[in-house]
């Protein structure tokens, strides 16, 4: 699967700008403006690196960075408006792998993400491979842009493929309809959010009798992949 980067930034325009540039570079991207959600996501498998703004409204970015270090060794590239040498040293002592000050070039952030992943032993754009779910029943091949169920090729539309790969990027994680729109069509398609249910219905139909168990509805929130990723 594509290497997944978590972008933690409370300013929506910056968050979406980074998402677009990272996706163009070949990464999968999750975004959140909440420090509390970031801490939760950093504890889940599938996140290769986090781009973290220190100026979050609910949880101080320093605390998120501390939690990230206590929970595991996910590389972190810090974004901050704090520009003094003391601030940079403070961030690096907390465990940041790199440090980018605002205002910044999104291209620079993408390059720094690649460099940090390379140092950490990860592929700079995430080598695509086939990943299976549900004991090998569902297989997703990013390189071929194909998905199979019980050995049968699924004839998916681009939107259905986007929904499936978004849900599969972190199995079990609940995605809101708005997040799925961002992943599939981009935030500028805000009015598209209300049509997600129709595409999920079509995707489930193509997944056969087990469709509702593969793409699970979480009432009042959104959807999640019901099958776990195979080792």
Question: How would you describe this protein?
Answer:
The chain has 231 residues and is of the alpha/beta class. The chain has 2 domains: 4-120, Rossmann fold (3-Layer(aba) Sandwich); 155-225, Orthogonal Bundle (Arc Repressor Mutant, subunit A). The chain has 9 helices and 12 strands. It is elongated. Mean pLDDT is 82; it is low at 123-128.
Unreliable runs, pLDDT <50, ≥5 residues? Answer: 123-128
CATH fold label of the largest domain:
Rossmann fold
Q: Rounded to an integer, what's the Rg over CA atoms? A: 18 Å
Q: What's the rounded overall pLDDT mean?
A: 82
User: Would you count the extended β strands for me?
Assistant: 12
Task: Give the helix/strand layout.
Elements: E1 4-8, H1 12-24, E2 28-32, H2 35-42, E3 47-53, H3 61-71, E4 76-80, H4 85-93, E5 98-101, H5 106-120, E6 130-133, E7 138-141, E8 146-149, E9 152-153, H6 158-169, E10 175-176, H7 177-184, H8 196-206, H9 211-214, E11 215-218, E12 222-225
Parallel strand pairs: 1-2, 1-3, 3-4, 4-5
Antiparallel strand pairs: 6-7, 7-8, 8-9, 10-12, 11-12
Helix pairs in contact: 1-5, 2-3, 6-8
